[in-house]
Amino acid sequence: MPTIDALTERLRHYLDGPQIQVVKRAFYYAEQAHEGQYRQSGEPYITHPLAVANVLAELELDFQCLSAAMLHDVIEDTGIPKDALSHQFGEPIAELVDGVSKLTQIEFKSKAEAQAENFQKMTLAMAKDIRVILVKLADRLHNMRTLGPLRAEKRRRIATETLDIYAPIANRLGIHRIYVELEDLGFNAMFPMRARYIKEAVRKLRGSHFEVIEGIKHKLEFKMKEMGIPGRILGREKHLYSIYQKMKAKGRSFHDIMDVYAFRIITDTVDNCYRTLGMVHSVYKPVPGRFKDYVALPKANGYQSIHTTLFGSRVSIEVQIRTEEMDHVANTGIAAHWEYKNQEAGIATNQQIRAQKWVSDLLEMRERSDDSLEFIENVKFDLFPDEIYIFTPKGRIMELPGGATPVDFAYAIHTDIGNSTVACRINKNLASLSEPLKSGQTVEIITAPGAKPKASWMQFVTTGKAKSNIRHYLKSQRQIESRNLGKRLLKKCLQAFDKTLADIPAKHVEKVLEHNQSPGIEALLEEIGLGNRMAYIVARQLAFDNEKIEEQDSKANQDYKQPSLMVDGANGEVLMLAHCCKPIPGDPIVGLINRGSGVMIHSEACNKVKSILHDSDQCIHLSWAKNIADEFSVALRVGVVRQRGVIAELARAVSVADGNIEKIHVEEQNARMSVVSLIIKVQGRNHLAKVMKRLRNLRVVTSISRLK
Ligand code: MN
Q1: Helix (H) or strand (E) holding 484
Q2: Catalytic: 367?
């Protein structure tokens, strides 16, 4: 059993005294925190964090990482807060522990295989510091090593997750050693019979082919010596799970796959790598198209080797050639970047230098190969915070760009969901639709039948899909509304000539369309609705079908009558309520034609329209329909005595009168008085009168007026 003393001994090789002290202190702290807790196996809980730290010590990681490993379950399992850890061990270690705890919390939410890829990315994205992932991988490795005592179901669940998520992450980060062990442990737990079969088959095969393999090895070794290339040759075994996956994926038999002998040649310099390559090609013929030079073009995760395949007498021989240094990187991957290099300056303590090295390595890798782009794409740190991962309530993971909001999320699920969104919950709490989302949140979209996208959403959505859908909706909505408005205006005007559109001969309609350069009647109606054509003029052109159209235009100017329209609702893209005077049902109103955008509904008393009320080119008669169900905004100015609780009193009065407060704002005040501006929703003038009466009756209210 590993002990803290044995670990300390190991750390002496690459850490200095004070750093080892911190790791030891973390151990004793965790031991005390986990006091009385035991693992399934019956061992004291502290054996687990100690083992995790040991795994990381094998990768020669720094003291902060090791301390975090000791403490990694403290926040989660003992309820000690992060603050306490940062007080004891400093911010960096507390941050690492916190990061690991957060990853642990999102675990197990999703098990669908198709989600694995996204889950991997999310795991990486959530870890601000890559060392969080390293601690997590070591934690997972030790848990996999000690799966035995768990219930079968739990064992399988952890094993599936390991194969789907953690082994691929280890592979992606180039930590070959952990990757292979995770896969084989996962395979063993999932398919014990198959694992045993393949293990046995490999053992037998190795026995029966022993002489052939040794023959090839000796031949190559002899040649190396002859050419004076230093180094060693290792036989190479594929790990069990990769053999199994190849059998499964390619439908090939065990013997097919194992008909390949694999060797690794490790030499001292890059130069000798290429000399070795020449050597093996002179002994065996290379298989065309199988040669890969990852020394000149390293893989994204830093992996370097020369790969070649040779024709043996009956079998093919795969050879990897690399230096000791490359071999080391191949086994430890990203962890190699955190190693302590035994140089004068205490580099191990300098976080920034190492972080910078890591970043510059990344950038360098990006320059070196196309693959690197994919690597950076897949490995997200806070340096590359351009993607977030969000759960649906059912555990599906959606990938969104950073800054995305619940509306973007809704459109990412489905256009129909986006279009009918009315509200949302983030982690089960009601939240604003414009709130930027964070990785790992669960977002539930609340929809309502008949709900419509809002123009205001355009101000905060970030995804192209949401933008184009909202824009498309608004545009088609405007089109529909402007056509309807145009149709209604034209109908009214035709009535003046005792005609309806159906009365006009098709041929004459054609002529009118041509005269107005309109491609069709719908387009012409739209133009009328948008205020680009006068309904009365078009009506006249249509009504007099036996006279010249041009003549009608001049006559129209003389005998023009304003059409009059009913307004039957509050919201529209073409028939819109003016914000300046906020008219409500009951107010006398007038429509101001805005060329190209439709008709604004103003109160007749509004300063903007007072002077042009009778200008028939710019205004149309409007009246309110009966029984409008919508609510309308209205602005009030209320003078009140300055005292405690006065706002609450106003709010209560409005709500008792069935009004709805939209906005409340104290505009000015002195020692005695305040002026409060209110925007409230009412159904019409009668309703407003009721609300104002309630307010006026309050003892604190000294004055009240509606703003127009
Ligand atoms: Mn753990």
Answers
A1: helix 464-495
A2: no
